[in-house]
Fold these 2 entries.
Entry 1:
Amino acid sequence: MAGGDELELLGTWASPHVLRVRLALHLKDLSYEYVEEQDLKNYKSDELLLNSKLPVLIHDGKPVYGTSLSLIQYLDVAFAGAGSSLLPHEPSKRALARYWGDFMDGTLVKAMEKATWSVTCREKAEVRAQVAAAMETLEGALRECSKPFFGGDSPGYVDVVLGGLLPWLCVTDKRQPSVKTFNPITTPLLLSWQDCFCSLKKVQGLMPEVGELVDLAMPVPTHCSRESLQVILILSSLLVQIATACSR
Ligand SMILES: N[C@@H](CCC(=O)N[C@@H](CS)C(=O)NCC(=O)O)C(=O)O
């Protein structure tokens, strides 16, 4: 830890936004105190929370306001001497890394959220296409890097952001088997990226169990029960009878 700085992170175990900041702290070798906050209501009116969201980073007793992405950028600048830099030094590469971070929150996360709640075949097909398109776009970005990580030979900012989403991407695959986010045919580089990232010592132990996240997520009805089908059949036949009687 640089020059006596104290870092505290308020988070919650299942949050991808919290996980990405933890990944950044670990990859930069920064020591910090992690405080698990299950109940955000305690903090709603507190000055610590800018927008009632976790994570909250506290540096030397003062909250650092911003989204999880800006907190990672803050850590990289405030602790420039610690560990390796997450964002590239070259300004255009730095801007591009930020672009991919925003892309993940704006496009991939939105498609994942829709995947969680989609019920009809049509909705499922739509989100499947959206998740696949977002992953293929990221595959293209990784191909441009020609390295195992978006950050090059070691993980950087984009890796941390995607790494934070990794457990929830696995949940999306599990709950919607028609969605395959890491696809050996369309995203082979991302598939090996996943292996490389998860085998990093600094990452191991931080990732939440996918099974626990699946349990946490609300069950999505994937098929009609026998009883509800019977009710639908009875109602349909009644409607047919009424329509026939009316037309006489
Ligand atoms: N854009 C924010 C999103 C953070 C966020 O949505 N945090 C969730 C946990 S994953 C949260 O605190 N939700 C509580 C609430 O909305 O009351 C960020 O990147 O930090």
Entry 2:
Amino acid sequence: MEAKEFTKKYYANRKNTNCIKWDNEQALNKLPMWIADADFKSPEKVIEMLKKKLNEGSYGYEFLPKDYLDTMTKWNKDHSHVEYKKEWIRFSKGAIDGLCQIIYSLTKEKDAILICEPVYNPFKAVIKASKRKAVVSNLIYKDNAFKMNFNDVENKIVKNKVKMMILCSPHNPIGRVWNKDELEQLFKIAHKHKVLVVSDEVHSELIMPGHEFIPSLSFERYQNEIITINAESKSFSLALFSHCHVIIPNEKLRNIFDAYQDAHHITMPNAFNGLSSYYGYKYGKDWLDGFKKTIYENYLYMKKHLSKYCDMPELEGTYLVYANFSKSIKDKTAFDFIYNKANIFPNAGETYGKGYEKWVRFNLATSLNNVKKACKLIEEAFNS
Ligand SMILES: Cc1ncc(COP(=O)(O)O)c(C=O)c1O
């Protein structure tokens, strides 16, 4: 499905629906382009099947459909060429809930956990809240592109006796899809120093033309040292349902994780929430195709029309673009300018790492009309 048709069919006016993105107080009278949430209805067949389920009217405890795991593993095999064994898969109420459970069950207080900034800010927040130590390796920004600093990663691992590393793959907010060589290099370092890698892959299906997503668990050699977090919340616009997979090939680690879930009585996934992903796998393929085309068209438009004011690293994956306004905004933060002068609500660049005050993150999971409006508002703000 082409972007225009996709938008016509699925664009949702989310104002006055208790929508965090549009109805947040900070978003009033602004064009909201913050929080990673899409302005599109989910695939229509998903909606139809959920309505059917809702209409049954009995809302007691339920199992997931019997073929849930077959459906999930088949989807991942077909889309990401990765074979997840059914017995590896556990559930959590969202990716960050899953991450918290991994941290609490598999590390101890004061353990060092490494992240590469700029990165999705709840990573650092949950490390700190769980009284673990956040160790930051800064990504290298050069020639309008981000790379990992492998020497720094290794040095920090050694110096801080790092136990775990959280990888964001694809990486929010910089829109990178890590390639095979980069991942191999990283896993080699992790293996050498016995660091457990937690690979957050919630954006893995939003891959832009010319790029290929490589699932961390496709590296068979390192499977025992990696845990993957995977969800359909971003792929099919299902964040409300808070349903996520925690994939743990290592039996010993899985047993510890299971014991943690048992102790906290979180052994059963919410079956209704899981149905949204299940129907997404079954009926969402064409929708996803239209969604990706829409994101990419929005990105190309924004990049072209704002090139005078900001640099945008190539959008390889996700629907989040990290824009560098260093060349045009001198006396204030980029967020301050974009929010107060252009009346657009993005995420502030510095949310994701120190030194990114001249950056903002724009969410492109919206209509091209909104993106055009944003570009016009920014142009007017610069010209006023
Ligand atoms: C990389 C990444 N992980 C996790 C999340 C949050 O997922 P959840 O709402 O399932 O906790 C987001 C949301 O933007 C994200 O970008």
